[in-house]
What does this fold into?
Amino acid sequence: MLGGPAANLKPDGYRLKTIDGKIVVTGSNDRGVLYGAFTLLRKVAVGEPLANLDERQEPRVPVRWVNHWDNLDGSIERGYGGRSIFWDNGASRADLARVNDYGRMLASLGINGASINNVNVNPRILAPDFLPEIMRIADTLRPWGVRTVLSVDFGSPQKVGGLNTFDPLDPKVIAWWKAKTDEIYRAVPDLGGFIIKADSEGRVGPSAYGRTHADAANVVARALKPHGGLIFYRGFVYDNKMDWRNLKNDRARAADDNFRPLDGEFDDNVVIQIKNGPIDFQVREPVSPLFGTLRKTTQAIELQITQEYMGQARHTVFLVPMWKEALDFDLRVGGRATPVKARVNGVVGVSNAGLDDNWFGNHMSQANLYGFGRLAWNPDLSARQIAEEWTRLTFGNDPKVVKTIADMQLKSWRTYEDYTGPLGLQTLTDIVGNHYGVAVEASERNGWGQWHRADEKGVGMDRTVATGTGFIGQYSPAVARMYESVVTCPDDLLLFMHHVPYSHVLHSGKTVIQYLYDSHYEGAEAAGGYVREWKSLQSRVDERRYQEVLMQLEYQAGQAEVWRDAVSNWFLRASGIPDAKGRVGHYPGRMEAESAGLDGYKTIDVTPWEAASGGKAVECPAARCVATFRYDGAPGIYRIRVRYFDQSNGAAHFRALVGGRVLAEWTADDRVPTRTIDSSSSALRAISGIMLRPGDEIRVEGTPDGGETAALDYIEVVRDEN
Ligand code: GCV
It folds into this structure.
């Protein structure tokens, strides 16, 4: 039974109460009633008792929005779940059924707004003839209480309006924003507002006219004000052409440097949208100091649900524990307890769901949207509660399923950090390319400022006030004191804050170099463990999803080994300090393709060198090539692991044979973000239960296709655990 508006509840709040055997849902507004109904459904699904319900729920913050980086042509920037649900070929998608489903999913989490186009804006979004396209989407989201929000280009007065300027103080520009905003609100009266990315990564901004970000935000804010609209102005402003040779330069400083002087100058419907960390959604960052700096300005935290630097939905990485650390971090403003969650009025998540059946390209990644919504509503929920709820709602209430999946999710961020960028190194990925595979030096010696400054003596960015960039001084004195000293700086952020020798001893008692080796081995081992844990759920999870998740986890385990070997070998070469446990550089059972008998295959150098074992691979320039390996170990039953390369520009075919008998054949047609032979295309085929005797000949045959050259890295013969 649905009741009317309830007194004493914040907007969107609701109450659930069992009265005379009936459950009454009351809300402070329509949304509240809808949210209450969804909560009731959740309780039914997870089996909570309903007999004596008496529960009041209010959202912590009024703005709980998702952002989409969808382009009008239907592609999605940093999207891993297929094409856009909103756009296709320059217009709204003809069939908006998935937008309707998405709206329902968002409502079930209490999310009340969605921006529907990329912050790297196609200015056409504000063209007069485009308005009907926006209306169709807004009409589809509205029944779910989800307000439509638009990303707009700050240069629109010129690019769409035909003015000769976009100077925010020019009266023509002021009039243009007002008229344009009025026009949009006539068509979409409940529009949530606008988002602006200005003076960042090539987007135009107020600097073109020597104006400030406050000038820029306020001109748009004043156009929105009569309609109750908000402008979310992104704090993600930095110079991507910084001189890396200057040791005082530091991208992490940028948000605070840019916005600190403007505190108090923004209108009250301007919200500064701040990424959780000062760089860019890396696997580990401190919180942005800007959360503590702005005292007279409304702010929102921006979290990234889409897994850009977090394995792009090919790796299971549950982000709720990371977000909770950011939301709970105590900024000690004015010497008092000041968790980030108490500073923000909005929580915004970059969602980038796509048309794929599972929305994100990986069943397990859905948990991140779920967790985002739940935390946006109530940041005090525990990560375990969220993980368990999601698992129950997604895979059912079997206790073994719930425990296994929730445990896996809860450790997955640490695991991913262990093999991709521990101690605050940030994600050691190809930052000038696909942001996916490992490329340790990609972040060095360029203007993007994601430097970790590793050389033969030491590693880490010196961000101290005493000798470094001074970034640490942007925090309150108590927080700055903690980070400034290596004695009190937490190990997890040591290399974000300090440059230290490899022999530096951590709080854990390990040296930095040994920790780097160990964490990569532990991370890869944990990822391998997920496969075993998941297999224990066979027949408890429906077969289709069982197989799909199994494939994903097997792939992740294989990639974790690529990361392990690449990063640990890179640091071995840089530091010259061997692994105390003798693992790095020694791979029992591994036979390099370049050392095999090659018929047709040619040896090549791989770039970066750490992406392939021994820095080399073989590729096939002919119609078909063969690599022959001789087995010389003890007789027994083994697993043969073939590491090959699977690019996106072809579907090469492989066969593996022993003594002329075909053991396996496969086609390299996985969805990977690279056309070259590198760590992103490195792939693994494991063939179990193979009887081998000394002198046996193991043959791998490759047949290229398109641009894909059936390249091979190595084979490994290992004991078969099955
Ligand atoms: C939408 C990072 C991403 C970009 C993104 C940008 C932003 O740099 O790699 O794809 O652009 O952040 O948040 O604006």
